[in-house]
Hints:
The protein is mostly helical. It has one domain (4-112). It contains 5 helices and no strands. It has helices spanning 4-13, 18-44, 49-75, 88-93, 95-112. Helix 1 (4-13) runs antiparallel to helix 2 (18-44), helix 1 packs parallel to helix 3 (49-75) and helix 3 (49-75) packs antiparallel against helix 5 (95-112). The protein starts with a helix and ends in a 9-residue tail after the last helix.
Amino acid sequence: MSTDAVESQWLTQCHEEPSAERARLTERFADVQAELASCEALMRADPDPDVRSAYTTLIRTVRTHAGAQAASAWNAPPITSDAEMGMGDVIDALKPIEAARESCEREMARSTTPRHLRSRS
């Protein structure tokens, strides 16, 4: 999964000309949604139900948290200075995505590791 869904939130807050930005962002979000749909189709074919479940959770988490941040950013005043670029509150709001990504990666690694090499719990 690309980081476009998360990065789009930052782009949303940099809007200057609302109608032009709305068109540009709509196109960008459509590209992100198409990529997510493509990845979801591939992941549905994975034979491991735990991998499919972890990926579904990741995508649901991305859509929930990144989508909420993008909507919030669109309604916020545009960023006008370098000092506003830190966006620590946004980073904190997107932390659940990191946790879901790490969980998904662990499941994928477990699934692709030969059984005889997997650690025994």
